Structures are given as structure tokens and as C-alpha cells.
Amino acid sequence: MRKLANVFLAFVILGILLRLAAVAEEAKGAAVPPEARINGEPFAVECTAYCDEGITASGKPAIEGRTIAGAREWLGCVALLYEADGQGGVGDFIGMYEVTDTGCGRDGDIPRGETVDIFMEDYDRCMEWGRREVYVQIIRGQG
């Protein structure tokens, strides 16, 4: 009986730890579904530049200064991109893009709405951009 009680206690502790991990993940904003971000406030994401020319997921060609890849739910939406101000807030306006592409990102973070990819024609400029924190605001409508 004592062994059964210890097993039960271990399961209770495991359940509590799993719930705490889920709450911590929600607190980071990762649990917000991409469709819930549309027409909301700007939110922080990691942004990587890419230079794979061609046709995007929407069927439109990739165009520098206009094309951004994001969650599938954002296709056809406008993405307003802002610099991160270094203090955890929204900085200067970078530009307005149309979400015409999707992707996988790192470990599937684009489909979850945790990152975006910005299209640039030049490989060296992509490398200069790298991967950086930005703020994005997703708005329903054509760009």
C-alpha cells in the first residue's frame, strides 16, 4: 500500500510540474494562436532574412521590400514591421509588407506565429540582417 501511495504522489508531482511548464510557456506568449494575432497589437518575434527567389505560397512572386513569410493564417494580411527598441518595446518603423509566403522556420516556429522571414534579393544583405528581434503587427487586408 505504501508503494502505491508513493507512485500516486509521483504522478501528482509530475502533473503539477507539467502544468507549471505549460503556464510558463503561455506566459511567454507562445500559446497565442496565429489567428488571434490578426488586428491585434504589435508583438515581438524573431525575424530572419531569406533570398530564395521564386513564387511564394500565395502564388505571387517574392518582391524585396514587400514580401514577408509568416503563419499560414496570415496569408493575404499586411504586416507592419518595427525595430525592437532594446528595452523590450516597439521602436522605429521598418516597413509595411504583405504576408505572401509561409515556411517552416526553425523547428516549425513560423507556422506557430513565433517568427517571420523577410525577403531580400541579395545574399550579403540577408547575412547582414541575420536573425533579430522585431515587432510585427498583423492586419487583415491587402498591402
What descriptors fit this protein?
143 residues, 2 domains, Barwin-like endoglucanases, alpha/beta
Structure report:
- It is a single chain.
- A hairpin with a 5-residue loop joins strand 3 and strand 4 (90-101).
- The chain is of the alpha/beta class and 143 residues long.
- It folds into 2 domains: 1-31; 34-139, Beta Barrel (Barwin-like endoglucanases), CATH 2.40.40.10.
- It has helices at residues 2-27, 123-129; strands at residues 43-50, 67-69, 78-84, 90-101, 115-119, 131-139.
- Helices cover 23% and strands 31% of the residues.
- Strands 1-5-2-4-3-6 form a 6-stranded mixed beta barrel.
Assess the beta-strand content as a share of residues: 25-35%
In spatial order, strands of the major sheet run 1-5-2-4-3-6
What gap, in angstroms, lies between the N and C termini?
67 Å
What is CATH's topology name of the largest domain? Barwin-like endoglucanases
Instruction: Round the Cα radius of gyration to an integer and report it.
Output: 19 Å
CATH homologous superfamily (4th level) name of the largest domain: RlpA-like domain
Average pLDDT score: 85
The helix/strand series, from N terminus to C terminus, equals HEEEEEHE
Uncertain stretches of 5 or more adjacent residues: none
- The total domain count is 2
Number of strands: 6
What is the 3D form?
A: elongated
Largest β-sheet summary: 6 strands, mixed, barrel
CATH C-level class of the largest domain is Mainly Beta
Structural class by helix and strand composition? alpha/beta
Tell me which oligomeric state these chains represent. single chain
